[in-house]
Amino acid sequence: MKIIKNSLQIQKISMELIRKNKSIGFVPTMGALHSGHVSLIKKSVSQNDITVVSVYVNPIQFGPNEDYKRYPRPVNDDIEICKKNGVDYLFLPSNETLYDKDFSTYVTVDKLSGIMCGVTRPVHFRGVATVVSKLFNIVMPDRAYFGLKDYQQYVIIKRMVKDLNFRTKVIGCPIIREKSGLAMSSRNTYLSPEAK
Ligand code: PAF
Predict the structure, then answer these.
(1) Mind listing the pLDDT tens digit for each residue in 94-135?
(2) Is 129 helix (H, G, I), strand (E, B) or coil?
(3) What's the CA-to-centroid distance between 15 and ligand 1, angstroms?
């Protein structure tokens, strides 16, 4: 597995893969990988010649009072999980790599972003749609895998792909649950056993 930190470098690799008619599967994540992510990675590995995973805690999808700073970042564990599950390229961009000092272009999926979770998280889906469109332009995947746990996110990304003519097919994958029935999430580490 190769670890790539530079967006131009991964873009060049993708262009070369496309030229060679290799299919690219992509699993965008914010890291703290768990069995839910592993199920997406496995699906991608089974359906594509090459699998790319990104691990990036995207600052622009967090509101000012949300958990951006304390979001878990066990990068070494994430690297091991990716290696073990057949990932070919792990993209680990920095904030400076993705967001220029003067960054000012955002993707907003109207109608779908202001309802449900969007009511209490007004910038969240704009941040998600923006970073996913950037990642799609960088990785240029044939297929991208998203958990149906974040159903509103999945629907918004599907809409964005259709509206903006991305080449990528968005694939929704089943929720993976803990034994107790709780849906797996990187944020479950915040919960006490009682809260779970
Ligand atoms: O679902 C997530 O982990 C994130 O919202 C995503 C899609 C990786 C964008 O940052």
Answers:
(1) 999 999 999 999 999 999 999 999 999 999 999 999 999 999
(2) helix
(3) 23
* For ligand 1, atom 1: residue with the closest CA: 29
Q: What is the DSSP string of 79-109?
A: HHHHHHTT-SEEE---HHHHS-TT-------
Q: Whose CA is nearest to atom 9 of ligand 1?
A: 128
Cβ-Cβ contacts under 8 Å for 102 (sequence gap 6 or more): none
Tell me the per-residue pLDDT of 146-179, one tens digit each, with 9 for 90 and over. 999 999 999 999 999 999 999 999 999 999 999 9
Q: Cβ distance 116 to 109 under 8 Å?
A: no
Q: What is the number of other CB atoms lying within 10 angstroms of the CB of residue 37? A: 26
Sorted by sequence, the CB contacts under 8 Å of residue 92 that are 6+ apart come out as 3, 4, 5, 54, 55, 56, 75
